[in-house]
Specification:
three-stranded antiparallel sheet, BirA Bifunctional Protein, domain 2, seven-stranded mixed sheet, 2 domains
Length: about 350
Amino acid sequence: MESLLQQINDHKLAIAAFTANNTDEVEQFRIKWLGTKGLVKAIMGEMRNVPNDQKKEFGQILNEFKLFAEARFQALQDQFAGASTTSTGKSAQDLSLPGDAVSVGSRHPLTLVRNEMVAIFKRLGFSVAEGPEIEDDWHNFGAMNLPEDHPARDMQDTFYIKKPEDGNGPTWLLRTHTSSVQARVMENQKPPIRVICPGRVYRNETISARAHCFFHQVEGLYIDENVSFADLKQTLYFFVQEMFGKDVKVRFRPSYFPFTEPSAEMDISCLICEGKGCNICKHTGWVEILGSGMVHPKVLENFGIDSNKYTGFAFGMGVERITQLKYQVNDLRLYSQNDVRFLKQFTGVV
């Protein structure tokens, strides 16, 4: 067994004396000593020739030898950690090249447009108001002149969360419009009131390229003495020209909303086909972007506001529709699919 001990000592001296100039030589060391056909494994195989009464002693010696070789290999690896070198010892990286650009994120297109919309109305003196997305039936419907038996409730498919079993207490739901925020503002603030209410809303609709079960709105409310429909029109004219440019055409159409009277929908000339007709404007050359009207006197009275003294207007529009026109997005589902290829198109957009 003395010859085996001498062989182990010689190998230790060779391992300790080994030096490497690059990672290729470190790999050669691993193959020679620690590989499947390396010298360490060959020495360990000599264990079968050791007498049984000496196996414990030699087992410890062989294990120390293996750990010694592994420690030396680890030290050689640490020597070249983080460095990429060639067999000649020179760096494989050209440090004179410019660095890789750092990938940065960007705001979501809906956030970009919402911020722009808010900024436009702020220039007209509107402040921002927010409210809960889980709302009670009164603030979402009742206060907006939609009692329980009102047929206009069929216009909105609602996600109901909880209805009282005995008929007592509020019914809770996911808000179907940010008009509920306007209700809370009128509940806690006396005229004059001039607010816009951005936020997410929910309706139980089939998801398609033109509709989704959740979307975003920006609604506005202005209540004061002597507010007229002319004030509403000029406010919306200003918004459209600031958002889409001075050349966009505008038209109003009579409509119906339970919380405004009179009511109107506003169309603009299609920016995608420039009024020539396409699938977005249904080949009419016009795209509806918002609903508006004078606040119904009953809504004012629901919050103790004198409808003989005060008048007001309200409007509401979908952020997705405005974004669709501004950036010519033809599928609403793209906004919520988190496709990086889609979102990267808005990198650098302020």
